[in-house]
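Hi F.,

I've been meaning to write this up properly since the lab meeting, where we talked about keeping a consistent format for the predictions we share between groups. The idea is simple: the sequence comes first, exactly as it goes in, then the structure tokens exactly as they come out, then a line or two of notes. No screenshots and no reformatting. I'm using this chain as the first example so we have something concrete to point to.
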Amino acid sequence: MIAESIPIDHGRAFDWGRTSHDYAKYRDIYPERFYDALLKRDLCTQGQRVLDIGTGTGVLPRNLYRYGAAFTGVDSSQNQIAQAQKLAGEQGMDITFRWEAAEECRFPDQSFDVATACQCFSYFQHAKLAPHLSRLLKPGGKFAILYMAWLPLEDEIAGKSEELILRYHPQWTGCKEERRFISVPEAYFPYFTLEEQEIFDVSVPFTRESWNGRIKSCRGIGASLSDNEIAQFDKEHRDLLERIAPESFSILHYAAITVMRNKGTTA
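Output, unedited:
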């Protein structure tokens, strides 16, 4: 499947580093079934070297650390990497995090058994990343892409929150999600074979506070708006949740995984 051609947020700038604090606090929300999608495929387990690209605050490596893989996480945002290092250090985890763009990260050829990209695949320069990642992976190594999104057309609280995001950021393209397989650009197919894809629903628990934080730390708000706009949004969203949501609730999401196998050849 070809990736969508619409530019992210129609070209409006964003910076994940501006929301790193809230990202670290509110976006470690994936349920166990999300991680099981990797584990049941024998990915990110004992004896494997794993490169997590676009690692952000290191959510994936930190949550899978107990299964014994040796993780390295890279991200183009210095603030995100600082949060990842802080959180892993507080939890006594020996994970390497490096401030480097995935397309330019420097490792010897065939350094990794597995590469992962969680919630970040659409941000990469695919024509550069595909051959680079193929070189870093061993022949036959796996590249697992993961994604999770709320379903605003089926979940009222998610839908109302999304309407408010769009009032503040009409260019935001992270809206109106429906279940779909992860799109893979043609740039990958000279280097990788598409092995399998899966979609499944998950129900994610929140409180008013944590859902407000999750929404505020999304690209359309915390990574894009001015401080004054974020403060205004925060107040309006809290007021909205007081009216429509109980103190604790769950939000319907779908999750998707795509797994590709490295051909280990030069195209």
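Notes:
The two ends are 20 Å apart (CA to CA).
The mean pLDDT is 95.

If this format works for you, I'll send the rest the same way.

G.
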